[in-house]
From TrEMBL:
Pfam families reported for this sequence: AlkZ-like
PANTHER family: CYTOPLASMIC PROTEIN
Full protein name: Winged helix-turn-helix domain-containing protein
């Protein structure tokens, strides 16, 4: 049983997420360590798939690197709303093909068996294709909680076939996905794993991405990977990555990081509170009158402390980054505030626009 202070646990978590002073070199390195980069169209500043790598790499990152890594080099792939490293594909493929589908999904696929065959045939013969290139020959429509999935069943069928490992996303035209069959989209000669073996391997990769996580929780999915640990002042059962633990003494120090609200570092809200004493609530879906920090506020990390949230928006018409407020959740020393302002200016320069600080931004 490893016994850690809260400072040590936080440093492990920060370093595992590549948010310390030792910046990674490229987008592939980021994806390999994080395991997944969220795709989301909300772009008050920039989309999640762009700001997540920028917050790690900094100036050396250019948005075109992501497209090249996915569509040309095939070192990353898109799956269910995230970009992932291709090194994970053998394990994920085993789980896709071995998963048990819910009864309603099986009924939908059985009822639409001719439609399923039509989609696969067209992709094999004509792919890669956009969903709009494929006719809807569905027999029955599927339902989702809260209403109909949509008038066109092709996107639904493609997403189900993606979940079972029959089709894959191979690129995009704007926000539209291009699809192909996996026998052509996936690399040949991939290692073959059984379902349970693949899950154990994925649990270890998840723990490596987090550094330290609670055991047996849906927030992290690390299971029994790594080694058991106790954290000072916490009654939770933790698992820690032994390599991250061994590197604790090799500490490069901290820095300022501005995180997209969909950043993996923020996903496990209970862990944020337990280790960092930071309660983060995404206010995107709250009525305006109930928002404290802003529609899409970006948390600010200094070293291993969350010190505030940035409420800012890219004004595309005026071509500047408007900082409405920097909400301090911990009091900042003058030099810390200067560091935060410097990171905001770097963000604006990366976007190619000047920064404009509003009355609450300073």
């Amino acid at each position: 049983m490893h016994r850690l202070t809260r400072d040590e646990a936080r440093r492990i978590a920060v370093r595992a997420q590549l948010l310390d002073a030792d910046r990674p070199g490229d987008i592939v390195e980021v994806a390999e360590q994080l395991g997944a980069i969220k795709i989301d169209p909300t772009a008050t500043i920039a989309p999640a798939e762009q700001t997540i790598p920028w917050s790690r790499i900094g100036w050396a990152y250019e948005p075109g690197q992501l497209t090249k890594a996915v569509e040309t080099d095939r070192l990353l792939f898109e799956h269910q709303g995230q970009f992932r490293p291709t090194s994970l594909l053998p394990m994920m493929a085993a789980r896709m093909r071995g998963r048990t589908l819910p009864a309603a999904t099986r009924e939908y696929l059985d009822a639409n068996a001719p439609f399923r065959r039509d989609v696969l045939r067209r992709l094999r013969e004509e792919g890669p294709l956009l969903a709009s290139d494929i006719p809807d020959t569905s027999i029955v429509q599927g339902k989702r909680e809260g209403g109909w999935y949509g008038a066109n069943e092709v996107p639904r069928m493609l997403e189900l076939l993606e979940a079972t490992g029959e089709v894959a996303i191979v690129g995009r035209e704007g926000r539209m996905r291009r699809w192909d069959v996996t026998e052509r989209a996936w690399p040949t000669g991939m290692p073959v794993h059984d379902y349970d073996e693949a899950e154990r391997m994925l649990e270890m990769r998840r723990l490596q991405a987090l550094g330290i996580a609670r055991r047996k929780t849906s927030w992290s999915g690390v299971g029994d990977a790594g080694e058991p640990a106790e954290v000072e002042g916490s009654e939770w059962k933790w698992r820690v990555d032994p390599e991250a633990l061994a590197a604790l003494d090799d500490d490069p120090g901290g820095r300022v990081a501005i995180l997209n609200p969909y950043d993996r570092m923020l996903f496990d809200r209970p862990r944020l509170i337990e280790l960092f004493e930071f309660e983060f609530v995404l206010e995107q879906f709250k009525p305006k009158a109930q928002r404290r920090f802003g529609y899409f506020a970006h948390p600010i990390l200094i070293g291993d402390r969350f010190v505030g949230q940035l409420d800012a928006e890219l004004d595309k018409k005026k071509e500047n980054l408007v900082v409405t407020a920097v909400h301090e959740t911990l009091p900042l020393e003058p030099e810390e505030r200067e560091m935060v302002d410097g990171e905001i200016r770097d963000l604006a320069e990366w976007l190619g626009v000047p920064v404009v600080f509003g009355a609450g931004g300073r």
